[in-house]
């Protein structure tokens, strides 16, 4: 799994319990996954289709640096599927895991359209397991 971005946990990111607010973390993940997919497919018009069960394993605190890891697990006709792990940069402790995120390429009207990529064509350019 490749870890593509890092975020510093700041005071405005905290919940009343003093740890990273889950909604903020999910926003970071959704944004990073959309950028990842757009880069992998060379297509900027992609949308979140599905996010599976989210497992909050541990929490992050003020000043922690978290990193978001994504790995492609599949390619459909118009979609790309990946998994996600967010961890503490320094301790490597997992903060959250998501087994399945699906993004879809869309046209100007918001309809799914083929992205034209295949696993075989993209193994050189994408983070796709053999």
The overall pLDDT, averaged over residues, is 90
Number of helices: 2
- Summarize the helix and strand pattern as letters: EHEEEEEH
Q: Poorly predicted ranges (pLDDT <50, ≥5 residues)?
A: none
Broad CATH class:
Alpha Beta
Under CATH, the homologous superfamily reads: Hotdog Thioesterase
Largest sheet: number of strands, sense, barrel closure: 6 strands, antiparallel
What would you call the shape?
elongated
Strand content: 35-45%
Counted beta strands: 6
Task: Count the domains.
Answer: 1
Oligomer: single chain
CA distance, first residue to last residue: 13 Å
Fraction of residues in helix: 10-25%
Taking Cα atoms only, what radius of gyration do you get, to the nearest Å?
15 Å
Judging by the overall fold, what is the CATH architecture? Roll
| Structural class designation | alpha+beta
CATH fold category name? Thiol Ester Dehydrase, Chain A
Describe, in plain words, how this protein is organized in 3D.
- It is a single chain.
- The chain has 130 residues and is an alpha+beta fold.
- The chain has one domain: Roll (Thiol Ester Dehydrase, Chain A), CATH 3.10.129.
- The chain has two helices and six strands.
- Strands 1, 2, 3, 4, 5 and 6 form a six-stranded antiparallel β-sheet that branches.
- A hairpin with a 3-residue loop joins strand 4 and strand 5 (79-88).
- The chain starts with a strand and ends in an 8-residue tail after the last helix.
């Amino acid at each position: 799994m490749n870890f593509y971005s890092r975020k510093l946990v700041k005071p405005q990111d905290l919940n009343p319990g003093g740890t990273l607010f889950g909604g903020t973390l999910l926003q970071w993940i959704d944004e990073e996954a959309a950028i990842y997919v757009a880069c992998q497919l060379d297509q900027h018009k992609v949308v979140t289709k599905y996010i599976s069960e989210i497992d909050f394993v541990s929490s992050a605190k003020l000043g922690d640096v978290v990193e978001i890891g994504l790995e492609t697990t599949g390619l459909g006709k118009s979609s790309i599927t990946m998994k996600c792990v967010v961890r503490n940069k320094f301790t490597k402790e997992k903060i959250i895991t998501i087994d399945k995120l699906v993004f879809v390429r869309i046209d100007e009207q918001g309809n799914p359209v083929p992205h034209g990529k295949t696993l075989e064509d993209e193994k050189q350019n994408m983070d796709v397991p053999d």
